[in-house]
Amino acid sequence: MSKFSEPMLLIPSVLIAGKNGGYISTTDLINKLIDFLQPSGEDLQIYESRNDTKFSQKVRNIIAHKSLENIGLAIKKDDGIELTSQGKEIYQSFLSQDQSQLNILQSPVPDNSRDLFSAYSPNHTPSQVIFYGVPGCGKSHTIDSTLESVDEFCKMRVVFHPEYTNADFVGQIQPVKKSENISYDFIPGPFSKILKRAYFNPEKHFYLIIEEINRGYAAAIFGDIFQLMDRKNGVSTYPIENDFINDYIRKIEESFKDSKFVKDIPDGEKNDSYYKQIHFEKFDFNFETGIRLTKNLSIIATMNTSDQNVFTLDNAFQRRFDMALIPNELDEKSAQKNAEIAETKITWGTFWKWINEKMMQSDTGMASTEDKRLGAWFIVNQDGKINEKVFAEKVLKYLWDDAFKFKRKDIFDENISSLEMLINEFKKSRFKVFKENDELLRKQGEKQNPQNSDSSDENANELGSNEQTNESNLNENSEQKNSES
Q: HSE-up of 52 (CA within 13 Å, CB side)?
């Protein structure tokens, strides 16, 4: 069992960088974190694909993924990190504490990683960030791995789509049957639910995760909540009035009744003891208080850059989010990159790189070719293999119907005239369905023998030999289909 997750290393990294004068290189940060935190067990295991421990890789990840930059504490600079003014404030706050308080770093790390922010600085800034990139590049995985140590109670996930509305997102009045009577109650949506949890638990950090934010009409779904996304010191600058959300937040449920932030006095126009005031930050939240986003609530979203028939995010909306591009890349020795496609000896890494290069060529005639690229995780290997059916009906279908929709003859064999024919011929002739399959075979041979071009040619020939026996299948089947028609 690993002791440290990536979020758990954020504040220790800030403190070490602060002690180092505000800047520290990646190598020095790894060494000093190891000396300070004393990782053990699984953290010290070495990855087979690189001469690096799991702990060291986690430190590299928080720099490469800009985890500290996304929360405003440090920026990536040269081969390391440099603290921002807010990061320096956190470090300075520690210098004013006695050593016994500083020892919190060496005590067991809380399950909720963002509890660390409350322990070190009550003024941390929440994230509002959109992770974007081509389909299958790892956007959701990046979020999951970053928040892996956060309790499920502190996370809420929602998927936007064309039929999703503000009522779904915020909540709506619905009839509810109680005994023999019908009442009309406010049924909260995910936004209201996570906001209430954040109000009642200021010492924890909460995350509203929005998948596919541009597949729904975000401006309409957010509605006046859009105004709350302008923040100062983490709290909404401009509140909004919404009696339904206000009543829902103040309604004391069993799970919140013992919260130390609830004032034990009635609150409401009718002095209803069912509703209470909530003390949050520097104000008391009561029936007259406007709704605000709190500093312990982050909004994180994902967005595919190549989606068609989706809603665009206007500049005013995007301005309120940080934008983080997820690189479309694979580790050199990863199982995904070296997974064999349908027993062809062609690996996913070779095909993925080759087809993306074809897309980026200027003569493809496609608009926004960069956005059409295959994501590194567009399909996922199973035990180092990629199934024939999965490859044919996901990858080939995408290339035929979308990526090369207007330039099919430039990439596929000229005898192929339909998607059905493409899939069927791939099952028989494999990569012969591509116009320049010999180039693909050669690249696979070069990958296997990078030092020897002669043996690379031999390997390319060997890779193609399994297809030679079926070399005439494509033309024969095409002729047969033409004669039948």
A: 12
